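Deliverable D5.2: sample structural annotation.
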Amino acid sequence: MAHLNKIVIVGGGSAGWICAAMLSHYFQNGPTQVELVESEEIGTIGVGESTIPPFLQLIRTLGINEQEFIQETQAAFKLGIRFENWLEKGDVYYHPFGQIGGPLEVNEFYQCWLRAKQNGHPSKLQDFAPASVMAEAGKFMLPAAAQKTMIANANYALHVDARLVALYLRRFAEARGVKRTEGIVTEVATRPDGGVAKVVLKDGREVAGDFFIDCSGFRALLIGKTLGEPFRDWSDVLLCDRAVVAQTENVGPPHPYTLVQAQNFGWRWRIPLQHRAGNGYVFASKYLSDDEATATLMRQVQGEVVLGPNIIPFKTGVRERPWVKNVVSIGLSCGFIEPLESTALHLIYKGMDYLLRFMPDMDADPVLAAEYNRRLVADYEEIRDFIVLHYVTTRRDDTPFWRDYQQVVPPESLRERIALFKAAGVLRDGVDDMFRAPSWQSVMEGMGVRPERYQQLVDRIPLGVIMNLMDKSAPMLADFVATLPSHEEFLRTHCPAAPLRRSA
């Protein structure tokens, strides 16, 4: 087997430095060199600064101290997402991280709750989700520090500063041997078989490699412009194609959730960190101009603006094949799904995780590439379906944007998921699914999609037992959460932000 001698990453930012950090961790002291080419002249997109729990798995896998990482990136905790005005105006629901309730004998909690609801119980599903209850109360505690309590099955992620994350991971990767080269790529030279041989920089320098990772963002210099790999356009089911973003000073304590508020022609987010807040309005240019979207966002932001507003155009979809010959595309060069469920950083990590599983040698065996492409595209499709679910189940018809969504035909895979769920609350689970049962159940319930019946095995349990469980569990959870420190207190006590560094 001929090992790869050199891997070249084209592009920095979050995508490039996550790739570099992972490669440096696994290849440290090995024969494979890793070089990253980026330019300070090309800014980082940084659309989303919100993560999901697997991002913390990446941090832990790399051996990074979580507390230090939070402090260095000015991060705050995230227990889930608060959705406002999605089902209809004035409606609110949470998509929490972690479990909801606990099983009763062999029966899933959700099925027991469905039976209680059919028998008149007044509770809401999220009354039993510890992450949702903490988020609503503005409280926080590490679930691992509260074992044998009612919040032990909660989970969390982080709100991060994308620029600071890239700088942190750059320091991590460079300390483990990754070489950084400053420069703008102006030309890509190919091999006789069509693969990439080297990139040429603006000043004439050349960077050759055996394998290339395209982290060049929407420009897709290698996978798109050089190799011409087609892009699957999903704008027929995801109508938004632009975002206006701005950073503001914090006003009040940071809430431990991402705020996602539906607007007339899309949706806006608010993501509080320790030192500032990220804000954005994702919208459809068919219905709204850039100036109108900017004005709408700026009317709603809290705090003085410290950066922006800036417009970011995007196209939703994914490459037909993320891995072609000796090039793998990661991040925006591979695909993009609007940041409604904060999946951008996860897809970078997942793309690299798959690459490490199917790591090629000098031959870049097409069998490995084929399996990589199948798995990663399936992940993009799963996330696409989950995002589309939020739109196609709305009852809103108050603007042309929402009325047009009433006519959108969901992908067949989503239609099948919804039909299966409506029948008896059954979910189609895959081996590597990003979103597990509590996520689908939360969004389905939040968007008014409830099964026609519960599974009949639940009838083995006396109804009184189930009703008593519901009566007692929600108040006990709320009472316990009331004793916890506030999110702001927890940050200040355990991981206050470090002074901002001026350079890498």
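Annotation notes: The chain has 15 helices and 21 strands. The chain has a mean pLDDT of 94.
The annotation will be released with the project's public dataset once the embargo ends.
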